[in-house]
C-alpha cells in the first residue's frame, strides 16, 4: 500500500463517515484491508482504490468503511452514566411515561448493541413493563454489520461479564444453537436478550454526518467513544445537531476522553462525569 493509496482511502472514509485517519493508522488500514483484497482476488491497493472509488460499487465501499470502523464496546461501559440515568434522568421521565407521555433515548454509534441494551436494562430494572408505555431506545450505527448483531441480540457468555448477575438472569436467556454456524456449540454458551429488551430497543443504520430521518426530540443521547474518530469541525457539527435534538433539561453523555466544544456549548452545560444538560428545563 503506497502513501497515495492510503491518502485515497483516508479521503473516502472522511467523506463517507467523517472519520479522520492520520498516517499513524497506515498499518491498521493495511492489516484490515489486505484480508479483503485477498478475498476478492485483487492484487494491489491501487486496484482496490479504483474499485471503491467507482460509484457502481457502493456495496464494497460500505464493506471497506465497516472494516475500518472501530467497534470496541462492552456492557455497562463507563458505568457512571447508567448510574446517572437511574438516579437523575429516569425517575421523572418514567413518572411522566406512566401519565402517557413519550420518552425517547438514543444510543448514537451503538456498535454491537451493548450500550443501548445497558440503557434498556437500567430502565427495565425501574419499570419492567416499559415497552408497553410510549418509551423507546433508538440504537444507530453507520456499520450495517454491528447493527445486525445488535438487532440479533445474541451474545457469548464471556461478553456478559459486565452485566450484574441479577440483570443477566432477568434479561437474557440461553440462545438455541443455530445449525451449521458453530454458534451454540460446546465452547461457549450463547445468550439472547428477552422480548422485554427487544421491544424497547429499535436498531437502525444511520450515518451521523448524513441526514437524520427521525422526527421529535430525545430526553437523552448517548454518543460515547464515537466522535474521537472525527476531526474537531465534524465533532462540533454533530454535537450542535444533538443539542438541537435534545429536550430542554435532557442530557448528552459523551465518552471519558471527549469534551464538548463549539456552538453546542451555548445550550449544553457540563454537569459531571462527561454528562451535559440542556438548559431551559
Ligand atoms: C468504539 S464504538 C463505541 C460504541 C459505544 N458507543 C461505546 O461507547 O461502547 C464507535 C462506533 O461508532 C460508529 N461510527 C463511526 N463513525 C460513525 C458515523 N459517521 N455515523 C454513525 N456511527 C459511526 C462505529 O461504527 C462504531 O460502531
UniProtKB/TrEMBL annotation:
The reaction(s) catalysed by this protein are: L-glutamyl-[protein] + S-adenosyl-L-methionine = [protein]-L-glutamate 5-O-methyl ester + S-adenosyl-L-homocysteine
The answer on whether this UniProt entry bears the keyword S-adenosyl-L-methionine reads yes
Record InterPro entries: Bact_Chemotaxis_MeTrfase, Chemotaxis_MeTrfase_CheR, CheR_C, CheR_MeTrfase, CheR_N, CheR_N_sf, SAM-dependent_MTases_sf
**SMART domains linked:** MeTrc
Query: Please, which domain of life does this record's source organism belong to?
Result: Bacteria
Q: Where is the signal peptide?
A: none
Per the database record, which ranges form the CheR-type methyltransferase domain?
A: 1-281
> What terms describe the molecular function in GO for this protein?
protein-glutamate O-methyltransferase activity
Q: What does this gene product do?
A: Methylation of the membrane-bound methyl-accepting chemotaxis proteins (MCP) to form gamma-glutamyl methyl ester residues in MCP.
UniProt-recorded name of the protein = Chemotaxis protein methyltransferase
